[in-house]
Amino acid sequence: KRRIGVMTSGGDAPGMNGSVRAVVRMALHSNCEAYAIYEGYDGLVKGGDMIKEMKWEDVRGFLSEGGTLIGTARCMEFMQRDGRRTAAKNMILKGIDALVICGGDGSLTGADRFRDEWPSLLEELVKEKELTAEQVAPFKHLNIVGLVGSIDNDLSMTDATIGCYSSLARICEAIDSVDTTATSHQRAFVVETMGRHCGWLTLMAGVATGSDFIFIPEQPAKEGWEGNMLNIIRKHRQMGKRKTIVIVAEGAIDEKLNKITPHQIKEILSEAGLDTRVTTLGHVQRGGQPAAYDRMLSTLQGVEAVKAVLEATPETPSPVICMIENKIVRRPLLEAVAQTKKVAEAIEKKDFRTAMELRDAE
Ligand code: ADP
Questions:
Q1: pTM of this prediction?
Q2: Binding annotation
Q3: Mode of pairing for the β-strands spanning 276-280 and 98-103
Q4: What was the ipTM of the complex prediction?
């Protein structure tokens, strides 16, 4: 029976458990065996008990649990070839030659690198007598399938990543709570949200909560933004609005490339006569139960991941399972990661024109 491994890696995201559940159950349904790799690449490098066979009942209740129950970690050893060789050995000892990874672009990059090196890692293992030629013979190719788990919705080539709608829901709940007190006291609140390269959460939260003004990395605030923001806020107040909400993404900047901070905005609003508070949402945005959308997305993508494993040939490039215009589709993993990196690099270099063009091209 084919053995398929599943793991979660990088930053946790609500819905990761749903993908583990779907991969395990779809693997069993397809007459394969399923293995969970605990603590991300750490589990692969450590092997032994960190790689456990999963039965149907082992993933019961996973769908509605936040975070990742099989754990995640950042693993330095896997960044080194030696670490990846040990990982390959552990997989062969368990008879696993297919891996579904739910993680961010770092995790997916590492996975494809592992697939690429696989034949030479096996050669080395045999040469150094860690495994015999007979042991490695049945495992010529490694199949990798990626699922994107990220609250930021920052991967190219997919409309939604697993976790982003749960995070958005959490942000909206938090802003609703701030709203009630803001309205009661006629206060202004500056809310800081996650997103160093990607303003999706901030933009969507702005729309979903009817906030007055937002700042995102992709669109640096134009010169004179302070006056523009105050004019808009004054207009809203004149229309009878009793509260003011400004949302600032972590990576927000102005046209001169200066970082825009929540405290800076607080100063501006306070000087304009508004009683202003700052709320940093921080890790609250990552946690809690997955929203219905993420349960659905992770389930459909987990099922598709197992299908992709079973249909793969040695020539098939590693796929990442995406959602495009409400359809579950496969895209080349490396292309999706390369495109994501280009956007992040362009933003880092403050080359917003290129960043926006790349985003538009998606
Ligand atoms: P994310 O997957 O959320 O982007 P990281 O970038 O921290 O998170 O990656 C998670 C883990 O994936 C790392 O700790 C490392 O073990 C592995 N990894 C990331 N990039 C590579 C790489 N280029 N080569 C090998 N492994 C990698």
A1: 0.94
A2: 11, 74-75, 104-107, 150-152, 187, 194-196, 250, 277, 283-286
A3: unpaired
A4: 0.98
